[in-house]
Amino acid sequence: MVLGVSAIPFTFVAHVLAILGLVFVLVWTLHFRGGLAWEATNKSLIFNLHPLLMLVGFIIIGGEAIISYKSLPLRKDVKKKIHLVLHAITLVLGILGIYTVLKYHNESGIAHLYSLHSWLGIGIIVLYGIQWLYGFLVFFYPGGSIGLRSESVPWHVVFGLIVFTLAVGNAAIGFLQKLTFLEHLGLAKYGSEALLVNFTAVITILFGAFVILSVLSQSPIEDENNNFTSSSKSISLVP
Asked: What percent of the chain shows pLDDT beyond 90?
């Protein structure tokens, strides 16, 4: 660990921010943007699935997966499985979130992959998939040798933290991009919807910050036979 303080206060704040992020994005998509739909004549309802799936699935659940080692007072093997499953859910929802925006573009006649947000989004989901697959093979099944796992942990930790940070930053870019489009269509720059979108982006960034602080802090209960630091375990599929 880097910080000589308990991770519990940071994880608690992260949980609260996660709930606020969920509420805010639901209010935006359901109240201001008209709802959610997989098939609709109003194609914007299809798009609305994208921010919901990416924020809740890719950012919030992904962040909760990262801090599960610090926030759950469970045995190491149980936390390891929770960590693995939550990241798998994150990956599936992230892929689905990207599919929904591609579907929206297809049905609306909008070009694909023209923005920085879209470029980063595709790259991040690919990196996330590589991270999860490598972690599964090395740390879960069939599992690598002790030496391979030991050497992989720090790189897996750093890579995972980089991918998560990129995802949070790209989410903020996505909120900015969508809000800019809406304002060009006449949305009031200081209206309630614009403020809500900006606050949602701020909450997303703060959530990411508190996830990182949790990673860098001390676990409430140290695992037995721990050969690595708690910070390493908090973001990786540990051996």
From this structure: 73
Let me know: does 148 contact 118? Beta carbons within 8 Å.
no
For residue 213, the number of C-alpha atoms closer than 13 Å in the C-beta half-sphere is: 17
Work out whether the CA dihedral 164, 169, 172, 174 comes out positive or negative: negative
pLDDT of 234 higher than 80? no
Structure confidence at residue 239 (pLDDT): 35
CA distance linking residue 45 with residue 168, whole number of Å: 23
pTM for the whole thing?
Answer: 0.89
Cis peptide before 142 (omega within 30 of 0): yes
Contacts (Cβ under 8 Å, ≥6 apart) of 201: 171, 172, 175, 176
205 alpha-carbon distance from chain centroid:
11
Of residues 148 and 181, more confidence is placed in 181
